[in-house]
Amino acid sequence: MDQDQLAALLAAAKDIALAAGRAIREISLEPQDIRDKADGSPLTRADLASHEVIVAGLEPLRPAFPILSEEGDLTAAEQGGWETFWCVDPLDGTKEFIRGFPDYTVNIALVQHAEPILGVVYAPAAAALFWAARGTGAHKRADDGPDQPIAAATSDSPATAVVSRSHLSPETKTYLDRLGVREMVQRGSSVKICAVAEGSADIYPRLGPTCVWDTAAGSAVAREAGCRVIDLQGAALSYDPAEGLKRPGFIVLPRNMNVPLP
Questions:
Q1: In this predicted structure, what is the pLDDT of residue 257?
Q2: Residue 35, Ramachandran bin (φ over 0: left; ψ between -120 and 50: alpha; else beta)
Q3: Taking residues 13-21, what's their average pLDDT?
Q4: Phi first, then psi: what are they for 160, rounded to 5°?
Q5: pLDDT value at 168 more than 90
Q6: What is the phi/psi pair of residue 116, to 5°?
Q7: Gap between the Cα atoms of 239 and 119, Å rounded
Q8: Cα distance between residue 62 and residue 20, in whole Å
């Protein structure tokens, strides 16, 4: 895929993410709009509305690629054989959305050869849009302001960490103590990855399982911003659905920072 094609797909993905965010914000949840999925995670009418907007926007794009969405049919992806595909979380941080926190996002990524080469993260409540494509750097636009390039911090040891509001474990606290982290900020959704990408946090460790759609878009942004997104063995986090849709954990950190693994 050449850079012109990638740029056109990125522009379309940004518009689609904004439209999905508008669909989410138009929904005021009632109790009957929330149910539990088979894995115990919540599903709302807003998740489904965002999914429909995203799929309707991505399907006409050319080149055409299959779509792996958290709220779609997951069977085909798990069977493998997808070299390039869209990886979508229509509403990342559903628990935060239900509880009225602003840390929820729309995530759209394009994955090729198990690596995210394009990513868009939109935080509707904050009107913050993050995006990146391979070889073009990472950018952010907030509150209809100007587009700004973003970059990871240049420190060689972590002083601040961003951690999960809903999934913070004792193991994570112990690990950050071992690293000498002095400040922890609890956030939700993929805004945690973007916090490291823009340099407002030094590290984000997630020592529990996540699915590929939770991190693909943020990973694309972080990598272009000068970060590494690694698994708990230190290898680049893989997005090959043939390896399964869940990953046991990961760490986001600036490229020049070396830390002991958990």
A1: 96
A2: beta
A3: 98
A4: -125, 145
A5: no
A6: -70, 120
A7: 13
A8: 20
CATH code of the region 160-254: 3.40.190.80
Q: Where would I find the beta strands (DSSP E) of the chain?
A: 34-36, 42-44, 67-69, 84-92, 105-112, 115-123, 128-133, 138-142, 148-150, 160-164, 183-187, 204-206, 210-211, 227-230, 246-247, 250-254
Helix (H, G, I), strand (E, B) or coil at 174: helix
CA pseudo-torsion sign 121, 123, 129, 130:
negative
Question: What φ, ψ does residue 59 adopt, rounded to 5°?
Answer: -60, -40
**All CATH 3.40.190.80 domain ranges in the chain, comma separated:** 160-254
Write the single-letter amino acid at 255. Answer: R
Amino acid at 167: H
Q: Tell me the pLDDT tens digit for each residue of 41-69.
A: 889 999 999 999 999 999 999 999 999 99
DSSP H helical ranges for 79-225: 94-99, 170-179, 191-197, 212-224
Domain with CATH 3.30.540.10 in the chain: 3-150
pLDDT per position as a tens digit, 202-228? 999 999 999 999 999 999 999 999 999
The topology under which CATH files domain 3-150 is Fructose-1,6-Bisphosphatase; Chain A, domain 1 (3.30.540)
Instruction: State pTM to two decimals.
Output: 0.96
Where would I find the H helices in the chain?
3-25, 45-58, 75-78, 94-99, 170-179, 191-197, 212-224
